[in-house]
Amino acid sequence: MLRVTVCTVGKPTAVSQPLVQHYQRMLRGFANCKLIHLPESTVRGVTQARAADAVAFAKVIPKGSQVIALDTEGKTFLTHQFAQALKRFEDQGEHVVFLIGGPDGFAPEFVQQYQSWSLSDLTFPHQLALVVLLEQVYRGLTIVHGKAYHR
After folding, report:
1. What's the predicted TM-score (pTM) here?
2. For residue 8, what are the contacts with CB-CB under 8 A and spacing of at least 6?
3. CATH of domain 2-144
4. CA dihedral sign, ordered 91, 92, 93, 98
5. pLDDT score for 23
6. Is the pLDDT of residue 150 over 70?
7. Are strands 115-117 and 95-100 parallel, antiparallel or unpaired?
8. In the chain, where the domains are located
9. Residue 78: its pLDDT value, please?
10. Dihedrals phi, psi of 100, to nearest 5 degrees
């Protein structure tokens, strides 16, 4: 079973929380999914906020995990390609950690340390990015395991 940790800056809103919970429930048969919500930085300035977020992320990233920072400049996938990437992680027994940055995104030097994937060419608020990511992980794993969700 795939081990997935999603680490976000900020908590889901009252609007997004039911969807986050829904996809967490749906994922139970396919992945061990853990969510970590870091507090939004209170420091002023984009550079300083990004640096504070980088420190907070570094503290919670498990050693030896495959880390993927979600960024608009990252690698894009078609749905089946995304599913195959998840399958490779699952087959290799990897622990995948997805990082969703705060409103200011990631510091370039931080994101360069990891794989960088994009959910879309569009920019989403981080709470919505969490919902989209969980749905896509669920969709990808249903494809990998031959379930009928993806049609």
Report:
1. 0.94
2. 35, 36, 37, 38, 99, 100, 126, 127, 129, 130
3. 3.40.1280.10
4. negative
5. 97
6. no
7. unpaired
8. 2-144
9. 95
10. -120, 115
